[in-house]
Amino acid sequence: MLNPKVRIFVYILLGFLVLWDTLLSVLCFCYPDYWFETFHGARYVDPQALLKRTGAVWAAFTLLQLIAFIRWEKAAWWLVLIAGVRFTELFSDWVYIWMAQSMTPFGKFGLFIAPPSNLIFGIFLIWVYKKLMKARDC
Questions:
Q1: Which of 6, 17, 56, 89 lies 20 to 30 Å from 120, alpha-carbon distance?
Q2: CA 132 – CA 26 distance, rounded (Å)
Q3: In the predicted structure, residue 82 carries a pLDDT above the cut 80
Q4: H or E element that contains 101
Q5: What is the pLDDT of residues 27-79, one digit of tens each?
Q6: Domain of 74, in residue numbers
Q7: Rounded Cα–Cα distance for residues 54 and 32 (Å)
């Protein structure tokens, strides 16, 4: 049996991740000028559309996390899948900070805290999954 507070927190975390990745993907697709100004203090120039590619990745994250939000209590493996989704972003943001020609303080801060946050989110979701599996074995 899962502690009710942990159960509620899983819903809060998954809901937050759905909203967050929706926001990120909408910004990339619909407001790329705002993204570049906020994160780089620069004009939007992206001839290879890498920002929109990243937005598509975050849209996929959104979809998977929404499914997990709906299904995790009946199919707990969704929690591990979402942990894997979060782990895919462990290095990309720090590489982004390091490689970008310009970065605003806001951009640096947001990108700096994202990898440890994703690590914590992923570990938590795996921990919940393991607790659920252990409870089912008893």
A1: 56
A2: 34
A3: yes
A4: none
A5: 999 999 999 999 999 999 999 999 999 999 999 999 999 999 999 999 999 99
A6: 4-21+58-133
A7: 11
The answer to the question of residue 96 being in a domain is yes
Sign of the Cα torsion 71, 65, 119, 13 reads negative
Look at the chain and report how many structural domains it folds into: 1
Whether 115 is in a domain gets the answer: yes
The token duo for 30 is 């619909």
Per-position b or e across 20-53, b if 16+ CB within 10 A of its CB: bbbebbebbbeebeebbeebbeeeeeeeeeebee
Task: Tell me which amino acid residue 15 is.
Answer: G
Q: Is residue 63 part of a domain?
A: yes
Q: Tell me if 50 is assigned to some domain.
A: no
Measured in whole angstroms, the distance separating CA 108 from the mean position of its chain's CA atoms is 17
Q: What is the pLDDT of residues 94-106, one digit of tens each?
A: 999 999 999 999 9
